[in-house]
Amino acid sequence: MALQKMLIYGEWVPAAAGRSISVYNPATGELVDEIPAASAEDVATAVGAAHSAFPAWAHTPAVKRAELLDRSRHSLLSRREEIARLITEECGKPLRQSHGEVNVAADFIRWYAEEGRRSYGEWIPDPLPDRRLLTIRQPIGVAAIITPWNFPAYMVARTATAALAAGCTVVIKPARQTPLTALALARAFNDGGIPPGVLNVVTGDANVIGQAFLDDQRVRKISFAGSPKVGKLLMRGAANHVKRVSLELGGHAAFIIMSDAALDRAIDGLMSAKFQNAGQTCIAPNHVYVHSSLLAPFLELLSSRVERLKVGNGLDSETDVGPLINRDALEKVSSHVNDAIDHGARLLTGGHQLTADDQAKGNFYAPTILADVTPQMRITREETFGPVIAVTAFETDDEAIERANSTQYGLAAYLYTRDISKAIRIAERLDVGMVGVNDTRIAAVEAPFGGVKLSGIGREGGREGLAAFTETKQLALRIEPA
Ligand code: ADP
Predict the structure, then answer these.
(1) Contact residues for 213 (Cβ-Cβ < 8 A; gap 6+)
(2) Residue whose CA lies nearest to ligand 1 atom number 25
């Protein structure tokens, strides 16, 4: 029997059939907790709750919704320590990063609580003299939100709060690796006074829950972050009822260092973007393209920084890099590195699993640098999602841009140069949704986040994130002739 319960219509409930799933700590392999394994019937109950709560929530004044969201934010922040610890226990990231994640989750709630009050329509110049055209923005309806494990608090807050602020009701399905954080967030929303049925969480088997969302015509929107494989499956399934979809499907970010770049700043940016969450972020630089004139000093400086990183349990305050999420992740990272070495890449540091002492029980991989990486290697095409830096030298700007654009993905790219004109021209030519110029902190609550090509459809964050949960309705009003 699961120790945890799901939130459906304001009640904490087990799976109707009593089944459960275990959640493990990726640093120790130990059991963290048990969660309910929802059946299709449980999902239908949750969707029914969201559906029945929708009309009243949609008509609640935005300022009132904002007030309830703000109370939820306070409730979340009052449990900041406990939730940060939970994130580290189920996801593995260093506690410092988990604290930061809770703070940003709270920031998303604050942003969308306020942004919901600015969901403006328009007054449109009408071609007819005795008529006026206007638009209003209305919530889409019930939104199903499927979140990944790498940012268990951030992703739930970013998406669910935008939906709630827009007037949608939601059913959240967190990743099976990290459901406890989502349940803790749900508690904060519940304690904050979000009415029963407005926010529901179902946990368990992804195929069962995903299919139940697709089959239910009361679900009007699917918002998903995860792998392209599942994203495509959901997009295909959503076609049946023509549900709206937002998809965030990962990336393969290029990190371009031009010959005039400030090398130390580029390395600072690379270290923080690459090793956050052990490289398991969709905007992590996957491939560094460095101008050949800087290659030797770059590799030397980078190696000394990477070799100093401390890998370990995220609860240890000294830890810079935590474990990978599971054995599959470990195998994928190893296979990318081995494949690159087999095809002639130069291994400068790392390149193996860490197994000393207790580390064999977790999923630890040594921070790794590979040089002389070529297009034949898998790491050039596939998302590694691990602590591995792949490096290739380039000669001309065109060559760097062409290489950066050569993957199927198109989420983020980074560019380091002191020449602002060059930065603008290159940024405009990169096929991605986001470009960091001399900076890698591109995720902000105020700004649209999302990609092109295989990286997905739609934007989250900023005002686009709110608009993603609304439909535009046109009103044509006939008025009396003057
Ligand atoms: P990741 O590599 O991040 O685990 P997934 O796409 O497998 O990527 O998972 C992202 C989210 O999608 C998780 O919540 C996962 O449980 C969910 N998911 C996986 N398979 C399906 C599916 N068939 N239908 C709906 N959701 C799914």
Answers:
(1) 43, 47, 144, 146, 171, 173, 219, 222
(2) 210
Per-residue confidence band for 396, with pLDDT thresholds at 50, 70 and 90: very high
- 335-389 pLDDT per residue, tens: 999 999 999 999 999 999 999 988 999 999 999 999 999 999 999 999 999 999 9
Pick the residue whose CA is nearest to atom 24 on ligand 1: 210
Q: What is the pLDDT of residue 3?
A: 82
Which residue type sits at 335?
S
CA of 179 from ligand 1 middle (Å) equals 12
Residues sharing a CB contact under 8 Å with residue 480, sequence separation 6 or more, in sequence order: 130
Which atom of ligand 1 lies nearest, measured to the CA of 233? 23
Give the H or E element holding residue 13: strand 11-13
HSE, side-chain direction, 13 A CA sphere, residue 227: 10
pTM of the model: 0.97
Pocket of ligand 1 (CB under 6 A): 146-148, 173, 175-176, 206-207, 210, 226-227, 230, 233
Q: What is the rounded average pLDDT for all residues in the chain?
A: 97
Pairing of strands 244-248, 219-225: parallel
Spacing, Cα 28 to ligand 1 middle (Å): 23
- The alpha carbon of 298 and the centre of ligand 1 are apart by a number of angstroms equal to 37
**Which residue's CA is the nearest one to ligand 1's atom 23?**
207
Closest CA to 468 of 283, 251, 245, 206: 245
Q: According to the model, what pLDDT value does residue 357 have? A: 87
CB 342 within 8 A of CB 381: no
E strands, 196-343, in order: 199-201, 219-225, 244-248, 253-257, 285-291
Closest-CA residue, ligand 1 atom 20, reads 206
pLDDT cut 70: percent of the chain above it: 100
Per-residue pLDDT at 480 exceeds 70: yes
> What is the arithmetic mean of pLDDT over 449-454?
98
| Phi, psi dihedrals of residue 290, rounded to the nearest 5° | -115, 140
Q: Please, which residues bridge with residue 412 across strands?
A: 434
Which atom of ligand 1 is least distant from the CA of 385?
Answer: 2
Query: According to the model, what pLDDT value does residue 208 have?
Result: 98
- C-alpha dihedral over 323, 22, 192, 449, to 10 degrees? 40
CA of 175 to the centre of ligand 1 (A): 7
Buried b (16+ CB within 10 A) or exposed e, 276-294: bbbbbbbbbbbbbbbbeeb
> Counting atoms of ligand 1 from 1, which one is nearest the CA of 173?
14
